[in-house]
Design brief:
Elements: H1 2-11, H2 13-16, E1 20-24, H3 29-40, E2 45-47, H4 59-66, E3 71-74, H5 82-87, H6 89-109, E4 114-118, H7 147-167, E5 171-176, E6 178-180, H8 193-207, E7 211-215, E8 221-222, E9 224-226, H9 227-240, E10 247-249, E11 255-256, H10 257-268, E12 273-277, H11 292-298, H12 306-321
Parallel strand pairs: 1-2, 1-3, 3-4, 4-5, 5-10, 6-9, 7-12
Antiparallel strand pairs: 8-11
Helix pairs in contact: 3-9, 4-6, 6-7, 8-10, 8-12, 10-12
Length: about 325
């Protein structure tokens, strides 16, 4: 499989060869993995400003960073788990909305050939038929705890479709499942569920305790996408997809939070008790994506199984964060 991936990267090099690529959020979790893969494709130039170098909430900054650029891959976002979304919903809405609007507008005015928005599964309605199909994206309001973030990111789909209709601007919109993997954010104040659980279990194991407390009831379900698979999907879509419709990226495998906690505990060798704090929210009741469009349009499907991806992530955390 690794050999096949290297061959695919080599074959796709022709698309990137003469292009200048702007990657926003390159220093983030997904961005760091994407940069590794993108460099192997040897584009003419990669522009990857840090947040300190380029505050994308400012239109003049967006004008500057999109000048002379052929392709924009927009990963930058203010993100976090349920706790952070509940704490700063205004910032989640404003920062993500303004970044997206400014960046796409300046990219259009500067003649960028392609704009790739990496959106969020949080854009889907709270109660969406399972598996989530792209056609159901507008059939209801998102889950309340992350609606400001989800709707802000969702507006980039509207903007991209409007710009395609009026200006012929090639903007595409991807909806990845919850991403995880080595290098994830393990800060308990802002992390998502997988890194949060890994840290909880490791802290309890190292402390010699016999109880892990987890938010919610454990009944909610999620779908997860290993970060290297996500990056491969983003790059495939950049190369091969040029339609207005949004595209799900995921594994189409669903697991309950209780099942997730049990799997992480088993991999980590935890033998104690898991206590569910039902006073805390579960978030969206279910998440599972219909990924048939991604396969049909640009041949994407996952290559890393969930247990393997979790094992790699746990090993990375123990080898890197716990030294």
């Amino acid at each position: 499989m690794a050999k096949k991936n290297r061959e695919n990267e080599k074959e796709s090099g022709g698309y990137w060869k003469e292009k200048t690529i702007l990657v926003t959020g390159a220093a983030g979790f997904v961005g760091r993995h994407l940069m590794v893969k993108l460099k192997k494709r040897a584009p003419k130039q990669i522009v990857a400003p840090s947040h300190e170098e380029a505050d994308l909430r400012e239109s003049q900054v967006c004008e500057r960073v999109t000048r002379g650029v052929d392709v924009v891959i927009h990963l930058a976002a203010k993100v976090g788990g349920i706790g952070l979304n509940r704490e700063i919903p205004g910032e989640m809405f404003y920062d993500n909305m303004v970044m997206g609007v400014n960046l796409m507008e300046e990219a259009r005015k500067n003649g960028v050939d392609k704009f790739v928005t990496v959106g969020t599964v949080c854009a889907y309605p709270k109660f969406t038929p399972v598996p989530f199909a792209e056609k159901d994206l507008w059939n209801g309001y998102p889950e309340e705890t992350n609606a400001p973030y989800g709707l802000a990111k969702k507006m980039m789909l509207v903007q991209g479709q409007a710009y395609r209709a009026q200006y012929g601007f090639d903007a595409i919109y991807l909806l990845p499942a919850n991403m995880y993997g080595p290098g994830d954010n393990f800060n308990p104040d802002s992390s998502h569920v997988i890194p949060a659980l890994i840290k909880k279990f490791e802290d309890v194991i190292r402390g010699g305790k016999k109880e892990v407390v987890v938010w919610g009831t454990g009944k909610a379900t999620r779908e997860f996408l290993y970060v290297e698979d996500a990056v491969r999907g983003i790059l495939l879509a950049t190369e091969k997809y040029d339609r207005a419709g949004p595209v799900n990226l995921g594994s189409s495998e669903e697991i309950s939070i209780q099942g997730l906690a049990e799997m992480i505990g088993e991999i980590m060798g935890y033998e104690g008790k898991v206590v569910w704090d039902s006073s805390k929210p579960d978030g969206q009741p279910r998440r599972k994506l219909d990924v048939s469009r991604a396969w049909k349009e640009f041949g994407f499907k996952v290559e890393v199984g969930f247990e393997e991806g979790l094992t790699r992530t746990i090993e990375w955390y123990r080898n890197t964060m716990q030294k």
